[in-house]
Design goal:
Blueprint: H1 3-12, E1 16-21, H2 24-29, H3 45-50, E2 53-60, H4 71-88, E3 93-95, H5 99-107, E4 111-118, H6 127-136, E5 138-142, H7 171-183, E6 186-188, H8 194-203, E7 209-210, H9 227-235, E8 239-242, H10 246-249, H11 251-258, H12 261-278, H13 284-297, H14 308-322, E9 327-329, H15 350-358, H16 363-388
Helix pairs in contact: 1-15, 6-7, 12-13, 14-15
Length: 389
C-alpha cells in the first residue's frame, strides 16, 4: 500500500468526530438546510461525506449582545433548528446523546449530530434550565463565551473594567459544574479565564474538555491553553480539541488582523444598519460576510492565510505536551470567516490524517485523535453520572 493510499484508507475507515461548529445559526437565521450547497459556509452533508466526518457537536450559541434578556429564547430556537434538520434528513442524520449513539449511527451509515451549548449565559443562572437543555439532548456546555457571566469569568473581557469579574468561578458556578457532572454533561473550558480553568479542575469529578482551543505556547492568545493547562487536562483524563481559527494558530496573522479592527468595526456598523432600522437582532452571518469581503478586497494583499502545516503544528504540540490520549479535533467551522489555506471546509479534514501520518504518528495514534479520545471522555463522563445517580 503506498503512502497516499495509507493515510486515505486510515481516514476513511476511522470514526471522525469534530467537537465544535457554529452551523446552527444558519438553520435559524438563513432558513438554510443542511443538504443545501455551502454558499460560503464550511459544513453541510456533502462536505461531511467528502471529509469522512462521522459525528459532529453543533454549538448552540446565543450571541450575548444581540440576544440580551432573551438568552434562553435564542438557545431554544437554535436547538429546535438543529432538531428540525435531523428530522428533515432522518435517512442520513441521527441525534446523538451518548458515545454509543455515535457508534451506532456510524455502523448504520448515518451522520451523528450532537449538541453543546456555547456560553453559560444560556442557562440564565438556573440549574433548572441546565437540566432542561440536557433533557433536550445537550451534552456539553462551554462555561463562558467571550463574555463573563454572573458566575464564571471569560478570557475575552479580562481587560474590560466595566465588567464585574469574580476571580474564577462563584459558588453558584461550582454548583453548575457539580450539576453537570451529575447529569453527565461535559464541562467545556474553551473561552474561560485561567482562574476559571483552575477552579473548574478543583471542582469537577469528571474529565473536562476544551472543545475548540489551541496551544498558547505557539500562538499567544488567551483563548489558547498554556502547557501547564494542557498537562492538567491530561491528568484529569480530559481532552483538548484543536481549533482551526487562524487567529488562534498563527501569531503573525493574529497581530495583522487585529491591526485592522477599527476599519472592520466601521464596516460592521454599516452592515448592521438594516437590522437596526428594523429593530431586529444582527445575525452573526452579517459580520462573517464583512470579514470575507475585507479579506478578498484588502487583507489578502497584506497577509497570506496560515497553512495546514501551521495548524498541524498545534496538533503536534498538544500531543507532545498532553499526550496522544488527550487530543482531538475542534474545528470551529462556521464560527469565523476564513480558514487555514487548504482547510476551507469539512471536505478537507483528511488533511489532518495525512499530516499526522507524514509526521510519523501511527495508525492507532491517529485514530485516537480523529475520534476515539472523545468517545473515551464521553464514556467516562457518562459513567460518573451513573455513579452519582
Amino acid at each position: 500500500m503506498n503512502e497516499q493510499a495509507s493515510w486515505h484508507d486510515v481516514h476513511f475507515t476511522s470514526l471522525v468526530i469534530d467537537g465544535h461548529v457554529d452551523t446552527p445559526q444558519r438553520f435559524v437565521d438563513e432558513g438554510w438546510s443542511f443538504s443545501d450547497p455551502l454558499n460560503g459556509g464550511m459544513l453541510n452533508l456533502a462536505a461531511a461525506g467528502e471529509g469522512g466526518l462521522g459525528a459532529q457537536f453543533f454549538a448552540i450559541w446565543a450571541e450575548p449582545t444581540e440576544w440580551r434578556g432573551r438568552f434562553a429564547h435564542r438557545t431554544l430556537e437554535l436547538i429546535d433548528g438543529l432538531l428540525r434538520q435531523i428530522e428533515k434528513h432522518s435517512d442520513t442524520m441521527a441525534l446523538g446523546t451518548t458515545a454509543h449513539d455515535i457508534e451506532l449511527a456510524y455502523e448504520h451509515g448515518k451522520f451523528c449530530a450532537l449538541m453543546g451549548i456555547e456560553g453559560g449565559h444560556s442557562i440564565e443562572n438556573s440549574l433548572a434550565l441546565l437540566r432542561i437543555y440536557y433533557d433536550l439532548g445537550v451534552r456539553y456546555m462551554t462555561l463562558t463565551w467571550s463574555n463573563t457571566n454572573e458566575w464564571a469569568d471569560s478570557s475575552g473581557d479580562l481587560d474590560d473594567a466595566t465588567v464585574k469579574h469574580h476571580g474564577g468561578l462563584t459558588e453558584f458556578g461550582r454548583d453548575v459544574v457539580r450539576e453537570m457532572n451529575k447529569l453527565g454533561m461535559m464541562v467545556d473550558v474553551s473561552h474561560v479565564s485561567d482562574e476559571t480553568f483552575w477552579d473548574v479542575l478543583r471542582t469537577t469529578r469528571s474529565p473536562i474538555i476544551a472543545s475548540h482551543s489551541s496551544a498558547r505556547a505557539l500562538t499567544n492568545s488567551l483563548r489558547n491553553l498554556t502547557d501547564e493547562q494542557l498537562g492538567a487536562i491530561a491528568t484529569n483524563n480530559g481532552i483538548v480539541m484543536v481549533n482551526f481559527y487562524p487567529n488562534f494558530i498563527d501569531d503573525a496573522w493574529r497581530e495583522a488582523w487585529a491591526a485592522t479592527s477599527a476599519t472592520r468595526e466601521a464596516l460592521y456598523a454599516e452592515a448592521e444598519k438594516l437590522y437596526r432600522a428594523q429593530g431586529a437582532p444582527v445575525p452573526y452571518a452579517a459580520h462573517l460576510e464583512v470579514d470575507r469581503r475585507f479579506f478578498r478586497e484588502v487583507f489578502s494583499q497584506q497577509q497570506e492565510r496560515p497553512s495546514v502545516e501551521i495548524l498541524l503544528d498545534h496538533f503536534d504540540h498538544v500531543i507532545k505536551v498532553a499526550g496522544i490520549d488527550h487530543v482531538g479535533i475542534g474545528s470551529d467551522f462556521d464560527g469565523f470567516a476564513l480558514t487555514p489555506a487548504g482547510m476551507e471546509t469539512a471536505a478537507q479534514l483528511p488533511e489532518i490524517t495525512r499530516g499526522l501520518m507524514e509526521r510519523g504518528y501511527t495508525v492507532e495514534q491517529v485514530r485516537k485523535v480523529l475520534g476515539e479520545n472523545l468517545l473515551r471522555v464521553m464514556r467516562a463522563v457518562e459513567a460518573e453520572s451513573e455513579r452519582e445517580g
